[in-house]
Design goal:
The structure holds two protein chains of two kinds. Chain A is an alpha+beta fold. Chain A has five helices and five strands; from the N terminus they run E-H-H-E-E-H-H-H-E-E. Chain B has 18 helices and eleven strands. Chain B has a four-stranded parallel β-sheet, sandwiched between helices. Classes of the chains: A alpha+beta, B alpha/beta. Chain A: It holds the Pfam family HATPase_c_2.
Chain lengths: ~140, ~425
């Protein structure tokens, strides 16, 4: 590890794989604890990475999650291949969700994911192309 | 938690079940890292050789005080046949040397009311997490420091009972408070440790804790002399029910409450809370032992038998309005410990290094090492799983050849190399040996 380079982690996410849902976020959380990041910061990172991870599992077919942990910040990029989001502004509204009834019955898809992530992050970017997929970048300062 | 070294065979049962990975086998014996230990007693339960014990007091110790109060945990009642009345059990405590008894179930009655009040507050973090089980509180400190605000800031029933019991004894005897011994008859080692290292208060008021298994025989022997004729004050069935998983929730009469027992499952549920799920839950009762306190490692009876007996007693509807009989003017703030409470601090023992850059480097070493390890989590290296071994290697307390598979690989490579070197004998030597023949 070079002096200014962070620790890099990569996770592959599969759509509809609820068995492994949350595994990536749990691992990130554990590593942040081992690194010694403050617990309230860890909580924000854990919640936002979990919500983003779940979004891929619920809505997309396949995704990659890349995490870089630096001494002063954590950056997470999630890119998925999926249906994409036609109206990001609408998707960012609390309570708006395109999740199916089946997903809602499982307790997900309450339309709180994206606004929740945005609230937890110090920097948040989302881009999406309908029919191709979505990319989320988030950064949280330690 | 203490290890009886001569009994320890260095098997991996304890390390495999420790929820905070606090134990390693080194030099053929288990070693507990105290800073990580949450005193859940899982290692006591899992050890086939009974090499782990909790440091508890014994009956002898009460002799150092002129006046002694026994504080029986409600789980004590589940240890005896349901035809042995609670009155008889309480009397047997007097028989073995205590001057008076005070049921912890009475403290539970008071705490139940206080929690019910607390849950009505609009400003609290939800879900509120019960702080009655000390092992759970310690698990939060070590593994979920971000949830400390969720812990209910009310002392456990045993502390509340101790305060009232000591006050009453002072009034009754005229002795100074420090001359009164207040002894908890405990099902679990975590409560023992609470006496030595209290949670949420400066000092514990309890003088000591005696394991149920320690005193069980004495009580059995005392039964024939007890007729249950003494008029002793009694707690309500709801307070007694705290010994069972779910008993706390039903005593508090909380709506939207989730009950979870067994430390591994508690870990899983708290993980979900930490991820921001379970927002609709108001209150979580978490107990470290399977079945609740009746499953404590210092109990004697099978927890299923104890559960049946407790249920019989709780359903017996004896003394339904016992709390009304509590003939003390309970100053809630004082007995609930509100005055002397201190903040429960996080214990960041999972951290690999004080310096964040060095910690990051260690995590990287760990991740790289983990890729090379077999991932069988057999525990033969003395660490609970491959991940923990990788962590120990990064910390410099273990090396890769501690792994039997890595060692075998290395021996095989070495052997191959030796054969190769042996085949490559220099020509003159061959010639010389040819000359000799």
């Amino acid at each position: 590890m070079k002096a200014d380079a962070g620790l890099s982690l990569e996770f592959t996410l599969h759509g509809a794989d609820f068995e492994l849902a949350g595994a990536a976020s749990s691992k990130i959380k554990r590593i942040l604890q081992q690194v010694g990041v403050k617990s309230d910061v860890i909580r924000r990172i854990a919640i936002s990475s979990y919500e983003a991870e779940m979004n891929v599992i619920i809505h997309a077919y396949h995704g990659e999650m890349r995490v870089s942990i630096y001494p002063n910040r954590t950056e997470i990029t999630i890119e998925d291949e999926g249906p994409g989001i036609p109206d990001i502004k609408l998707a960012m509204q609390e309570g708006y969700s395109t999740a199916s009834d089946h997903i809602r019955e499982l307790g997900f898809g309450a339309g709180m994911g994206l606004p929740n992530i945005a609230r937890c992050c110090d920097a948040f970017e989302i881009t999406s192309e309908v029919g191709k997929g979505t990319r989320i970048y988030m950064m949280i300062l330690h | 938690m203490r290890l009886i070294a001569e009994r320890c065979k260095g098997c991996v049962n304890c390390i495999k079940h420790c929820p905070t990975e606090a134990i390693r086998i080194r030099g053929g014996k288990a070693r507990i890292t105290e800073s990580r230990c949450i005193d859940c007693g899982e290692c006591i339960r899992r050890c086939p050789n009974h090499a782990k014990t909790a440091v508890t007091d014994c009956l002898e110790h009460i002799k150092q005080y002129p006046f002694n109060v026994a504080l029986p945990a409600p789980s004590l009642y589940g240890q005896f046949n349901s035809d042995v009345t609670i009155e008889k059990i309480l009397e047997s405590l007097l028989q073995v040397g205590f001057d008076t008894v005070f049921e912890v179930a009475l403290g539970a009655d008071i705490v139940s009311r206080a929690i019910a009040e607390y849950l009505k507050r609009p400003d609290i973090k939800r879900p509120a997490i019960s702080s009655a089980c000390p092992a759970v509180v310690r698990l939060v400190q070590v593994q979920f420091p971000e949830l400390i605000d969720h812990l209910i800031p009310i002392d456990a029933p045993v502390e509340v009972s101790t305060r009232i019991a000591r006050d009453e004894a002072v009034k009754r005897t005229g002795l100074a408070p420090e001359n009164i011994g207040v002894w908890f008859i405990t099902p679990c080692p975590a409560k023992m440790t609470t006496v030595k290292q209290p949670l949420g208060s400066e000092t514990s008021n309890i003088s000591g804790a005696i394991g149920i298994s320690e005193i069980y025989g004495d009580l059995l022997r005392a039964f024939p002399d007890c007729n249950g004729g003494q008029k002793l004050r009694r707690a309500s069935p709801a307070g007694i029910g705290w010994a069972l998983s779910g008993g706390e929730v039903s005593a508090v009469q909380a709506a939207k409450a989730l009950v979870v027992n067994e430390i591994e499952s508690v870990n899983g549920v708290l993980e979900q809370v930490a991820l921001g799920k379970l927002k609709e839950v108001e209150y979580i009762e978490c107990l470290s032992c399977a079945g609740g306190c009746i499953g404590g490692p210092l109990t004697v009876e099978s927890r299923f038998v104890a559960q049946y007996r407790m249920q019989q007693r709780v359903d017996g509807k004896m003394n339904p309005d016992a709390i009304g009989n509590l003939s003390v003017n309970v100053d809630y703030a004082a007995v609930l410990g509100g005055d002397e409470r201190r903040v429960i601090e996080p214990r960041p023992v999972m951290r690999l290094d004080e310096d964040i850059s060095r910690a990051l480097y260690k995590v990287e070493v760990m991740e790289d090492t983990l890729k090379r390890l077999p991932g069988l989590d057999c525990g033969s290296c003395g660490s609970p799983n491959c991940k923990a071994l990788a962590e120990d290697i990064a910390q410099g307390t273990a090396c890769e050849t501690d792994c039997l598979f890595k060692l075998r690989e290395k021996v095989r490579d070495l052997a191959r190399e030796m054969v190769e070197v042996a085949d490559r004998l220099p020509p003159p030597l061959v010639k010389q040996s040819g000359d000799e023949s």
